[in-house]
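input
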Amino acid sequence: MSVCLSVQAAWGVTFRASIEDSRWDLEASRFNCRLSQPVPDYGRALFEQEAGEDVHFRLQPLGRSHAAGQALLVAEAPPWQPGIATRVIGPVAVDAASGEISVDPPYARQMLAYLHQGLVPTFTHERWQGTVEPLRVGVSAANFPSAYREYSGCVEGLLPVNFTQVARTALLFPSATTDLPDSARERLDLIALYVRNDTEVRSVYVDGHSDSLGRRLLNRDLSKKRAEAVTRYLVEQGIDESMITTRFHGERYPVVPNSTAANRDRNRRVTVRLERD
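output
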């Protein structure tokens, strides 16, 4: 039988894959690593790390919510290693609508560490399906070490940023200059790396802006040269020039009023926007 399911006064209703049927599935790319385990008759346990982010965990029930409110997350000994003390990780929220449990990075990292030690991260809720029986859902540690090695290899190969982190960027320029600052080059390196790897990115919009000091025509020229410097650098980093639309606007579109030196610093910018299909 592929699930340990019991109804007892002490243990309540427990869902957990047996040692024979404990399976880990890895979905790997440069954008995301997902390590999941089916929990028979309950749903799926999923560790997920997106490029540029920390690891998260989700416990997803198959259908309607089994529980709501709050559950306690612990790491306990597997059935074949009795006697090891239970380690309390902490309370976690249960989504009232779906019954899904989302675990933030600090607890998710602890779960991975305990699984590597052979312990079973277990979620306990005081009521199952509105009954007085506790609900317990365990993530089996069986067959975990080899799966974790593959998962770690995937994580090492993730891009340093994800689409959300690079889709909108503002590069700031010192007054009266058009040369790319070092900080802008570093940011453009990340943008170019991402675009080279994501075939869904079809368009890159580069828009130059200035503050309002000086003559309007001179400001327009400054914004043009700044935008062209950004486009030129992206092309040098391997971005197809046909993907890039370069525009310049002078002082017409300030993000804040040009009333202080700090505000003018924010308005002297080139924005880079990525668009997917």
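quick obs: The helical segments are 105-116, 144-156, 163-166, 182-197, 216-236, 261-267.
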